[in-house]
Amino acid sequence: MPALPTSLWSSVARKALMALTGLALIGFLAVHLLGNLILLTGNADAFNLYSNIYASMGSFLYVIEAGLVAFFLIHIVSGVTVALGKMKARPVSYEKTANAGGPSRKTISSTTMIYTGIIVLAFLVFHVTTLKYGAHYETTIHGEKMRDLHKLIIENFAQPGIVVTYVLTMLLLGFHLRHGFWSAFQSLGALQPRLSGLIYTIGVLIAIILAVGFLFIPLWIFLTA
Ligand code: HEM
């Protein structure tokens, strides 16, 4: 059997890592959205009780968070190096950037993955510093003192600039996921041609549900709280 060149191995390996971590991060987003939907009920205690479940996990939370950070880092590093590798291989981009259709699935989503990814990363830094490491208000529920994250979120989503930032970034996240979900299956070699259309449609649905779900929350709070 002829040996495969090392560069091919590494590029294939990096694509597979990007795909696996991307799919795991979509799983994280789905769980994160489900929890955050409690905000739509307007029940501050319910949301604070939910978000404090994580705080009460103690050192196990650090394990989960370390895993999450590792997944984000692997996804970003493999994504950026794969994109740089493509640019190096083809320094002058093709003139035709319109939807190529068919099996290539070339769309505005696929050609802007690196840019939408970088913007979502910048959002993530802003998001985690303003909420996770933001003001530490306290509340008491059933005699137990805990962090009042609900108050901090309501304060944040009362600011038009923050709401616009969330809405625009979530639209870009939607574009990123729309191509990313299908592309992950493609990179893992798990796409038989007859399944390609179905996986693409599922990816589009997941992208719409996550993007609309996440952008609706700040909009709803801004308009109703
Ligand atoms: C309506 C939109 C969102 C709301 C209300 C929201 C809410 C929150 C809150 C309250 C925390 C802090 C949790 C804690 O300190 O225990 C948090 C953390 C976090 N959020 Fe979001 N989030 C939203 C969208 C997103 C999106 C779109 C992403 C990813 C692209 C994201 C990724 C994260 C990450 C990675 C953390 C840190 C998790 C940890 O280390 O425990 N969030 N979010």
What does the model show?
The protein is mainly alpha-helical and 225 residues long. It has one domain. It has a two-stranded antiparallel ribbon with strand order 1-2. The protein is elongated. It starts with 5 loop residues before the first helix and ends with a helix. The model has no long low-confidence stretch (mean pLDDT 90). The structure holds protoporphyrin IX containing FE (HEM). Protoporphyrin IX containing FE binds next to helix 1, helix 2, helix 3, helix 5 and helix 6.
What distinguishing features does this structure have?
binds protoporphyrin IX containing FE, elongated, 225 residues, 2 strands, mainly alpha, two-stranded antiparallel ribbon
Side by side, the strands of the main sheet go 1-2
Ligand names: protoporphyrin IX containing FE
Query: What is the CA-CA span between the terminal residues?
Result: 66 Å
**Number of H- or I-type helical stretches:** 8
**Assembly classification:** single chain
Low-confidence blocks of residues: none
Please report the total strand number as a whole number.
2
Helix share bin:
over 70%
